[in-house]
Amino acid sequence: MTDQETANKVVRLGRVAPTIHDVARAAGVSISTCSKALNNKGKLKIETRERVRNAATQLGFRPNELAQSLLRGRSFTVGLLISDIYPRVMPLLAGIEDTLAAEHISVFLCNAHDDRTRERQHLNALLAKQVDGIIVAGRRVDLRAPVDLGHSQTPLVYVYSPIDDPDALCLMPNESQGARLAIEHLCALGRRRFAHISGPRDRAAIQIREATMRQVLDEQGYDLPAQRILHGSLDEPFGYAAANILLDRDPDIDAISCGSDVLARGVLDALRERGVCVPDDVGVVGYHNMEPIATAARPPLTSVDANLYELGHRAAHDLLAMINGQPRAGVHLLPFRLVVRQSCGAR
Amino acid sequence: MTDQETANKVVRLGRVAPTIHDVARAAGVSISTCSKALNNKGKLKIETRERVRNAATQLGFRPNELAQSLLRGRSFTVGLLISDIYPRVMPLLAGIEDTLAAEHISVFLCNAHDDRTRERQHLNALLAKQVDGIIVAGRRVDLRAPVDLGHSQTPLVYVYSPIDDPDALCLMPNESQGARLAIEHLCALGRRRFAHISGPRDRAAIQIREATMRQVLDEQGYDLPAQRILHGSLDEPFGYAAANILLDRDPDIDAISCGSDVLARGVLDALRERGVCVPDDVGVVGYHNMEPIATAARPPLTSVDANLYELGHRAAHDLLAMINGQPRAGVHLLPFRLVVRQSCGAR
């Protein structure tokens, strides 16, 4: 059916919500007068405008935004396609939703469950609903396949989810700069014998962080022998076990860089139970600054923060620019910040 | 402007996305033939249907769902108004989104930031977008004010967010049953001298849990003297401090019921450092079963789980029923489940 046919049919259908016809009838004016009064256009007596507005309020009349969207060719909606729902995506969600809500744009939340089929279904639904733009949000630095919008020109932003396409806009946390912040901070505090405990080596972020750590220590003239590095999982039990292994191998370690804050919590527990004092004997830094975990650590954990709320804000901001016809492209790396608490030994 | 005027204007406007006119032109058929082919209606040659479908695929033609929604009087969208974005709301979000996505309904995520003004703005936007229904999701057992939909008949479900309106549908976790699960479990394991460490006494959930604990212990014939109860905040540092205070007062305590899992983590640390063995000397149970926190505890923490994913699924399921004309009302309490790990001493 054509839009014309659709449209003709609309007014033939009974509608639950009050229409402008009901308002005009209630106010005792013509449709066009009613329309002028509601849209604040044309020449009308003040009393007439008032009468129409009161009738609209009493009936609970709302202009049908679907009809307006159809007319304007803009839906004032944006699709947010996330790889999954997990704690670390929350500040990203909040930054995106806050920024778009401030522009009166509503956000469709679509959870792909890391599944290409579900992602495809969500994308089809978003395109069918004529969203003004789409944000694809992940949680990895690893490359992902570009999403396929077919012939659609719908603006698209990738955040925390890089793809191999020079025409696409990708906003990423700068893992290398984040790792550098943590290591340079420990070096500045006089740490020399570094150890590193992190997650699976097949992840890009894990590789970047270790490579950066090696580079910074090399610049500073300190070595990082293989026996002071352990890769496993980013969880607390591995941190606890790995810290014990590393200190058995080398009791003189004076700094441990951890791949996550929960992993660092396991490290702190192991050190405490060995009678190793943090930060006096060993300085410890976490990664990602998960507030409740880092602040409740004993001692409170120094960590680096990817500023995910700001990343979400930037993604929404750039998408709005694209929707308004300003092209955006390329990979943009956004900075981490260092959050200094007590575990590093800073005064 | 009337829907009729709007609709008439639609086809006069240039559209970026290909329309049925473009498909008909490309396939060399009339609009009505094209419409029949795409909607799989009427009598057509197979070759014609094929030719039209191929043209549609090549052009990337998508039926305009805004137009269809206008026609059907249904938008196949639902508004999800959450009080804020925080870790414990995630399974609720996931349960709601999964259930609605399976029915091809897209979800608007609206974060009210616990602010009535923002809530009002989100509600107006949702109603203007003609959502088929609205879910209001909170995180408290405390009463909240009903949301005002004006004259709108849009179906509404409150989840984890009770209001004082017998005609409304409220789905809540059964805090009393959850607390009972934990305490009866400890009693069954032979615990007798109970202590309770929990959050701010002005919260309904905190009051319900303490009252239930008193009731269960009374039924079992055990007392709960005031000096074995401490209320503060639901965080880890308070759990650590409170456990030390309570064991200084009464070293014979053999069970500690905690108001949250992170609080319980603080309790476990305090007990370990005092040389008190968990579970042999003291059994500990948490609340809410935050997986990574409970499983990484030493020993792994027994906790009660509010089944928030299922709560979200049920909310979406009931909203769909209401959208389909089946009324729902009243307060419904959904069960917790006990997740037994090692901190309670169960074999």
Describe the structure.
Two copies of one chain form a homodimer. Chain A is an alpha/beta fold and 347 residues long. Chain A folds into three domains: 3-63, 434 Repressor (Amino-terminal Domain) (Orthogonal Bundle), CATH 1.10.260; 75-173 and 308-334, Response regulator (Rossmann fold, 3-Layer(aba) Sandwich), CATH 3.40.50; 175-306 and 339-344, 3-Layer(aba) Sandwich (Rossmann fold). Chain A contains 13 helices and twelve strands. In chain A, the strands form three sheets. A six-stranded parallel β-sheet of chain A has the order 2-1-3-4-5-11, with helices on both faces. In chain A, strands 7-6-8-9 form a four-stranded parallel β-sheet, with helices on both faces. A two-stranded antiparallel ribbon of chain A has the order 10-12. In chain A, helix 9 (204-220) links the parallel strand 6 (194-198) and strand 7 (229-231). The model of chain A is unreliable at 6-15 (pLDDT under 50). Chains A and B meet through helix 1, helix 5, helix 6, strand 2 and helix 7 of A and helix 1, helix 3, helix 5, helix 6 and strand 2 of B.
